[in-house]
Every structure is written in structure tokens, then in C-alpha cells.
Amino acid sequence: METFKSKITKIAVKEGLKYIERDTQENLTKLMQWVEKFATLDDHKKAIAWVKKNMKDSDSVPAKFINRIFTEVNPKCREKLLTNFLVQSYFIGRSKAFENEKKYNCKIPWAILIDPTSACNLKCKGCWAAEYNKTDSLSYETLDKIISEGKELGIYAYLYSGGEPLVRKDDLIKLAEKHDECIFLAFTNGSLVDEHFADELARVGNFTLALSVEGFEEETDLRRGDGSFDYILKAMEILKRKGTLFGFSTCYHSKNIEAVSSEAYLDMTMEKGCLYGWYFTYMPLGKDAVLELICSPEEREKMFHTVRESRRTRPMFVLDFWNDGEYVKGCVAGGRNYFHINANGDVEPCAFIHYSNVNIKEVSLLEALQCDLFKEYQKGQPFNDNYLRPCPLLDNPEKLREMVNRSDAKSTQPLDKESVGDLTTKCLEPSSKWKETADRLWDEDEKEQMTMVCK
Predict the structure, then answer these.
(1) Quick one: residue 317, left, alpha or beta (phi over 0 = left, psi -120 to 50 = alpha)?
(2) How far apart are CA 42 and CA 415, in angstroms?
(3) Distance from CA of residue 161 to its chain's centroid?
(4) pLDDT (tens digit, 9 = 90+) per residue, 159-178?
(5) 258: how many CB neighbours lie within 10 A of its CB?
(6) H-only helix segments in 272-345
(7) Residue 329 backbone zone (phi > 0: left; psi -120 to 50: alpha; other: beta)
(8) For the segment 184-207, what is each residue's pLDDT rounded down to a tens digit?
(9) Is 363 left (phi over 0), alpha (psi -120 to 50) or beta?
(10) In which element (H, E) is residue 405 found?
(11) Global pTM?
């Protein structure tokens, strides 16, 4: 049930939007000065200060990004972005979550990643979900239960993966409509996006898509099949025309790194209407993993610089799930900021860590967050003092092995039951090679920060 506070918040945001639209730059700064009076958490105060600082210059990249939201996104989606994502999920939700963390003695994450289905209409090379049963599916009632229990704990952000989540697009729209105060995102191959579905996204307003693309036509079709790049571009064209909020999702590996780290690639995605982008790196899951796709230290460093330079030069929010560890102080998985529920209901610490000792069909969401594997994660986080080595698999494989064994977690990959010993062994050499580069980058970054402070 929607709270009185949420209802008042929505009214305030609607009025605030009308005020901002008259003069985005000047009035947003004034609005932030008003909001600042009610901020209690340090993270919230820092975020408000960042907006105030960057909106002073209309030519700054953040100011241009905010202007894109007010010129490219339709009013309903824009309202939901500010109401549900910023206010409900970030401000109200996080405050509520921190209170519940003390009450229940466990971490309450900001977001939950859920696989509504493991079914998919593609067979991409190196898919991290390839070892799941393709017939697994979570019922609408189970999905609804997860979200309902999540809201009680202060979780208002829900991400979908799969499989191809839009195989269940009618149910996902229904959930977005019912849980109107939440924000939803689906990672999708884009093949099922059509005019009607885009209209539905525009209608509910609180549902955004991250379209999976691997570079340009050659790189994308190589991994996802012939014609994949064309229907991704078609989906982007439809979504942009409808004014819905969307972005891109890219897995970088040794075969596409040059393309996806290029200025031309980032320019293309922004031109097509993407307002954000997620970068992931290839993870060697499954006994048939292609180890030569793992990025070398030089290739991973290239992406490190690419993402940071993009944020300085382009009005599009881009993040790297691995190389941005310094901003979130290491690994965010295991319930710390997010976790994963696969289509069988297995509760996993991360989409790339297929081990579990609880199933959401048998326990409450709170009980899942209190599971032994998550406790092991949270005892060990951060897994490295160098936040550019955040991952317990790719960067600190011995840590994952210890946690899985201590918690007696089992493999959730029914097709090959890959042991944690076999999995982590594949990452020993890549993690050792990355250490030298990551330590150098970390030292350089610390020196740069110290120089800025001294100035």
C-alpha cells in the first residue's frame, strides 16, 4: 500500500517538475536548495551538492545530461524517473532500508536483479546464463511477492535479466503498473520491442530498457547472430520516438574491445537516444567457457580510461560494473547493494556467481537476505583494499572459493554443476595479471586525489 509520505512526495515532484521546466538550469538549483533542508544521509547531501555545483554552468556535461532528460524523455517517464528513482528509491527507500538493516541485522540492498524466465530466443556465445535450465520460470505471483516484500524493506528498484525477460513482457508491464512507486529496468536483446510495447512503456512510465549490443554490426552479429544489430537499432528508433528512457548494455571482451571502447561507438549509442550505458566484462562461467575472451590487463585498463573519459565529455551516464569499484568501495553483490534471483528461484549473490543455499520459493525475502552465503560476503567486503580489484571471482578468486565452501552453497547450474574450485581456478591467472595494473592505477588515482585536495 502506498504511504502518505509517498503520495505527498509525488505531488511535490509534479509541482517541482512544472517549476523546473520553466527554466531547467536556474530552477533546478533553487529546488535542490529546498530539498537540501530535508536530507539526512551523507550520500544524499553529497548528491544534492553535486547537482547544485554542476548546474551553475549550462555548458557542463551534467547540465547537458539533465537537459537531455527534459527535452528527449516524455513527461510521464520523466516524472517517474524523478519520483520513483530519485525520491522513492534513492531518498526514501535508502533511509527506510538503513533502519531495517539495524532492525534485522542484515544488509538491505538498493536493487534486486530477477530472472522472470530462463527462456530466450537467441543463443549468444559466452552467455553467463547458458548453464541454467531453459524451462525455468518464476510465476507472476512469485515476482509480485518479491517486489511486495522488497518494498516493505525499503527496496524500490527491480532489474530483470534472463533468458530474455521480454518473453514475459505482459507480466512485467502488469507488475510495473501495480507497483507504481517502483522503478524497473530490463536487460534485453531488443528483438521483442515493437510499437505496442513501446507505447506500454510510455504509458506506465516507470519501466526502462537496457538494450544488449556488442559493438557495431560485425561484433554484435558475431556473438548474437545475424540480423541482431539491425533489430537493436530498430528498437532504439522506436523507443526514442516514443520518448521512453532507455540505454545500452555491453559485454566487453578480447574480441570486441576496440569497437566498444571507441568514441564512434559511444557517439552512436548517444545519437540513437541512449541516456545511460552499462559495461560488463566477460566472465568464464561454465565448463565450456571460452577463456580467450577474458580481457587482458591492457584491455581492461583501456575500458577503465574510456568510461571515465566518456563521463567527462558526453551527456550520457555510463558505468562499468567492474572498473567502477572505487565509487562503491568494492563489490556491491551479496545483498550489500544488490543480489540475483534466477528463474528457478535460487538466491545468488550476483548474476555471475551461480551458487546458493536458499530458494525464494521456500523462504521470505528477508530470510533470503539473512542466508549464510550473504553473511560470508558481507563479512569479507571489501574483498580487496584496492577497489579496482573488487570482484571475489575475477579479481580475488580465492575469496569466492572460501565463502562458498564455508556456507556450504551449491551450484545452481544444473547443466554442468560447475564446482567453485573449477570456476575459480580459471580466474587465478587473469586476477594475478590484473593485480599489477590495478595497483598502478590505484596509486595514480590516490596521487591525483591528493593533488586536488592540496590545490
Answers:
(1) beta
(2) 45
(3) 10
(4) 999 889 999 999 999 999 99
(5) 14
(6) 297-313, 325-328
(7) left
(8) 999 999 999 999 999 999 999 999
(9) beta
(10) helix 397-407
(11) 0.90
